[in-house]
Amino acid sequence: MNEVRISLSRDISELSRLEIDIQKTFGIPEVVVAPLSAGGDPRLVTGAAAGQFITDLLQPGMKIGLGWGRTLFNVLGFLGELSVSQLTVVSLLGGITHVRQVNPAEFAWQFSRLFLADCYLLAAPAIVDSAETKKALIERCGLREVFDFAKSLDVVVVSVGGMASSSTTNVFGFVSDSEQESLRNCGAVGDMLFNFFDQHGRLVEHPLNERAMSIPIKTIAATPNRILVAGGSEKIDAMIGAFELIRPTVVITDEFTARALLERSSSIKENDLRSPDVVKARTVVPSKISRPHR
Fold first, then answer.
1. pTM of the model
2. Of 5, 63, 104, 222, which sits with the fewest C-beta atoms within 10 Å of its C-beta?
């Protein structure tokens, strides 16, 4: 079997300029922009860059929470081969009944196997039938331990989905067409772990948000190191909303998406100037990703 490794160099002036512009525009401490050829797959290069970044980040005793999606699944092929003692992995979302390569629980499990890490899984469907069922599963079926443990995570790695027909939630049939329409009517621009939010990073008032078997967004936003990995033209509005939703400490994307984010930001600011309800830009806080003290 032939093995292919992609090594990404960040010593490219154009990419460095995009990274700095994204930092300043959205108030993100650290940004990684991966090179992408015209017509290339942003999920592959973004996943490769994230794999390299996460490999360099991992430390003994670290507790890391993992989201899911086609972009994050690509991370697995680009993680370095190293031993990390006492590493703990937590899946941030329940599983799915129709298993394909992007099954959330399977991603966390495969990641943990690479590093011989302990792994906590949410042994429940990603979406349940009601808020009452969700509460019962957490309180009476042993999932409270995972939810409580997630409050002590050092790092979370998540992605976002857009509202386009090509989004993972739509392609794999996790959300019906009628639900998609009602979510858009509520102002949803994307989701993180099946938690749907608007362009200002506010969770929309929709029953589906009460049925997602995921670690709460509040818990994810409180984690010291929050890595957002995403790319693609259909995710621009979702990414901008996610910047406000969890205020990531690190964003990893591709160069085409980075340029589109900057263009979209300029458009939003022009519209905000005409509106009395202006969402002010955050101030950049220069900082490096924090490391757990052991």
1. 0.87
2. 5
